[in-house]
Amino acid sequence: MIEIAGVSLALGGSRIxxxxxxxxxxxxxxxxxGPNGAGKSSLLSLxxxxxxxxxxxxxxxxxxxxxxPSRQLAxxxxxxxxxxxxxxxxxxxxxVGFGRFPHIRGRLTAKDRExxxxxxxxxxxxxxxxxxxxxxxxxxxxxALVAMTFCQGTDYILLDEPLNNLDMFHARNLMRTxxxxxxxxxKTVLIVLHDINHAASYADRIVxxxxxxxxxxGETGDIIRPDILESIFGFSMRVENIxxxxxxxxxx
Amino acid sequence: MTEVVMQRGLVRHEGRLAMMAAVAxxxxxxxxxxxxxxxxxxxxxxxxxxxAAMxxxxxxVAVSTVVFQTVCANRIITPSIMGLDAxxxxxxxxxxxxxxxxxxxxxxxxxxxxxxxxxxxxxxLALFLPMLRRRFDLTLMLLTGVVLGVxxxxxxxxxxxxxxxxxxxxxxxxxFASFNAVEPDLLLFAGVITVAGVAIAWRARHVxxxxxxxxxxxxxxxxxxxxxAAGLLVVVAxxxxxxxxxxGPMAFLGLLVVSLTERIVGTxxxxxxxxxxxxxxxxxxxxxxxxxxHALGGEGSLGIVVEFVGGIVFLAILFAGGRR
Lengths: 252, 324
Ligand SMILES: Nc1ncnc2c1ncn2[C@@H]1O[C@H](COP(=O)(O)OP(=O)(O)OP(=O)(O)O)[C@@H](O)[C@H]1O
Ligand SMILES: [Mg+2]
Known about the structure:
The structure holds two protein chains of two kinds. Chain A is an alpha/beta fold. Chain A is 35% helix and 29% strand. Chain A has two domains: 1-76 and 154-225, 3-Layer(aba) Sandwich (Rossmann fold); 86-153, no CATH class. The longest helix of chain A is centred in the last third of the chain and has 18 residues, at 168-185. The mean pLDDT of chain A is 92. In chain B, helix 3 packs antiparallel against helix 4 (109-133) and helix 3 crosses helix 6. Chain B is an all-alpha fold. Chain B has a single domain, classed as ABC transporter involved in vitamin B12 uptake, BtuC. Chain B contains 13 helices and no strands. Classes of the chains: A alpha/beta, B mainly alpha. The interface between A and B is medium-sized, with 39 and 24 residues. Bound molecules: adenosine-5'-triphosphate and magnesium ion (MG). Adenosine-5'-triphosphate binds at residues 11-12, 14, 16, 34, 36-42, 82 of chain A. Adenosine-5'-triphosphate binds next to strand 2 and helix 1 of chain A.
């Protein structure tokens, strides 16, 4: 369970997050949606202790993120940021292998190698395993970063817009993989999404943010409704049930 | 398949490393044996002291530069940006000013070494430690170092103007690194500090690989970034201070050595990069000194040569980087 209580954040004099309280239950996929600048990435980086907590309290699996040793947290929680640059000149397999670092700190064991190979396979990277990251396309690089996050093998996975740059095939593959690990392994996934239909299809719960506050949160079916979507995004859109799936017609 | 190829890559890096080690040994042997004349025992002892100093300084400069560049996430930066060598030069100038060239030459070398070492490490700690308590802002720290460096250099210039020509000549002898007059006593001091610093850096080699991925990724993978970065910077400062207090400042040596090394080994893995950079530094210093001593026949200062070549390499990197 991720518990967020009374979290506020001010940067450069402006209020980014305003008294956010939220509980993400253990197990399942929770989508975080909202307009640009709502504070989604800021909230995620506070949960993942990438930024110091200014006020309020955040715990992951009961561990306060501001006082628990970083390494202990890294064994239960992995984060993929919105645009992580990769500074080093690394091969794909090496990058993915860094996901094992919190568990071993050095030499990879046979089991680690298996996990790395499985992550590469999972995200269709086996053929690219020996390529240098800086020679990949945007979507290929994004998949390598997602694979590294998976490789960490944590119970909690935070993903900030992981679908960026992915083609339809790989976007669907990622969402189905998330669904599967949540169902089969009881993982807790918190994922920032802009494509509301991906959230509608794959998420158990949706949390909507706007202007630094949580303005709606609940079961997917309770959030994917025209009135609520309009209050989040500021325009009206139709919601249809197509082949048993809630579908938002937001392009029109 | 992946496994096999990666393994082969590792073997290739290790092969390069072994080759560099062989070259370093050859250069060392050449330095010790070329043109032996006169009192053999005396000459050999003199050369052994110089060789030991060059090995120590080479290793300290190479390791400190690699670690500093990784922590700062910048491959064209040298620890001298922290202003430590500017402080060193200022201290020597102030000492010559206060004691005159004659008095300066009479200072107990051990006291002199410890004084210089303490001054430089104190400055470094004053720079890093406040960052531990509040948010660690590396850029701010570096900027403070740059400003202090400029301050020390201006003060040095001011004082140097007031020196008489004899004292000024004494001062010039100390502000460029030179291996011609190394005190054997000090080798032990500098050696202990260097070995300790290098051991810490070596133990941190995997953590350094993770730090190189960027601050956020490193934290996500469980590195306590602030404490780790501050600790490593203290190690860098200790290494730089020990080598500077031993032979004088070598601002560009580290840059020259690390950029050469990266081209030779072609990997960012610190398990390879750290020893490779240390070997390159030894080869450059010992090789340079051998050439200087025998081919050019002079007692010139290796420091000046290294600064000159290092400066050119630095410009070359900047231009090459600009084109990429
Ligand atoms: N370092 C900073 N200093 C000042 N303001 C910042 C800083 N970082 C972010 N902000 C502001 O905080 C607000 C929230 O940013 P955040 O990145 O959390 O939004 P987001 O919901 O992730 O948006 P997006 O959908 O565009 O990714 C924005 O208005 C942004 O301009
Ligand atoms: Mg964002």
